[in-house]
Design goal:
Elements (H helix, E strand, L loop, with lengths): L2 H8 L3 H14 L2 H8 L1 H11 L8 E2 L9 H9 L7 H25 L2 H27 L6 E2 L3 H26 L12 H14 L11 H22 L11 H23 L7 H25 L5
Antiparallel strand pairs: 1-2
Helix pairs in contact: 4-6, 5-7, 6-8, 6-11, 7-8, 7-12, 8-9, 8-11, 8-12, 9-10, 9-11, 9-12
Length: about 300
């Protein structure tokens, strides 16, 4: 077969991609597929169908998360309540989209258990953190109600940024004896800082969240300093020579696309009425949790957990 024929045979086709998806599904333990796709959407739908759950929305007239037992309950439960069916469907679809790329990247990175542990932390912590951030920033401005799972979805978005680099680093580790390829997973912090800088510098669709150049500039400086420090310590990322298959390359392209679209859609071009502060809080927690694991891997020897 000619070289041209080799290139054509290695190019991704729709049939090849569908076959790859089917093979990935078959190779995934049924319990994993169930855990990542069914329980949370089922819970969200069940809560929406239960009578009286509209009262679980968080009122921004509340003075604090720990003001009363009811305030604490609504701070937590409001993340699982939705204002209408469209709101519910939007968050369920976004959840499925995020885990559809975060899960295979976690397998490549050796982060299967870390993904499950991170999700447990997000469910327990993100609703309270996002409620606190919302009350602090908007509590004196409005007494509106807020609800929705988008804060937890934003946490999964932060996780996706971290695991994308961890998976690529794992790919490089596997071929390091053959090529000079190398990616340190700590480079993910540069992307996290840069995305937060963009969120605070770019005009938002939410009128209550105008650009804040001072805050955005701090995150931009943080991104530059982190990049400079990593470049000095470990050098720039090098992926030449990985020789990934077309389907694996598509996984990284899809993961990066979902992450970029998620940042723009939840932190930058936010629809009017969306709680961007809850998104920001979820994103920060979502990135921080796995990144602490990355730092721990660096001191104890990098590896899956």
């Amino acid at each position: 077969m000619s070289a041209a024929g080799d290139r054509e045979g290695n190019s991704p086709t729709l049939r090849g991609l569908l076959a790859s998806v089917r093979a990935a599904v078959r190779s995934t333990p049924p319990r994993d597929l169930f855990l990542i796709t069914v329980p949370l959407p089922t819970l969200l739908v069940a809560v929406s169908l239960m009578p009286g759950t509209d009262a679980w929305q968080l009122s921004l007239a509340t003075e604090g998360v720990f003001e009363s037992r009811w305030a604490l309950w609504t701070a937590f439960a409001s993340s699982f309540v939705h204002t209408d069916p469209v709101h519910l469907v939007d968050n369920v679809v976004n959840y499925w989209l995020l885990v559809a790329v975060a899960y295979p990247l976690s397998i490549v990175a050796g982060w299967r258990r870390r993904l499950l542990r991170s999700v447990v932390v997000y469910l327990a912590v993100v609703p309270l953190v996002s409620a606190w951030a919302t009350i602090v920033t908007l509590g004196g401005v409005t007494d509106a109600l807020t609800a929705g799972f988008s804060d937890v979805n934003s946490a999964l978005l932060g996780y996706l940024v971290a695991v994308w680099f961890a998976a690529l680093a794992a790919e490089c580790d596997r071929v390091r004896s053959e090529t000079p390829a190398g990616v340190d997973p700590r480079w993910s912090v540069v992307v996290a800082f840069a995305s937060l800088a963009l969120a605070y510098l770019a005009p938002s669709g939410a009128g209550y969240f105008p650009p804040l150049p001072a805050v955005g500039s701090l995150f931009a400086v943080g991104a530059v300093l982190a990049a400079a420090g990593l470049y000095t310590a470990v050098g720039r990322p090098q992926v030449a020579g990985l020789d990934l298959g077309p389907e694996r390359e598509l996984l990284y392209v899809t993961g990066a696309s979902v992450a970029a679209a998620g940042v723009i859609g939840s932190l930058v071009l936010v629809p009017f009425g969306s709680n961007v502060f809850a998104h920001l809080a979820g994103y920060v927690v979502g990135f921080t949790v796995p990144f602490l694991g990355v730092l721990a891997d660096g001191t104890a020897g990098r590896g899956g957990s």
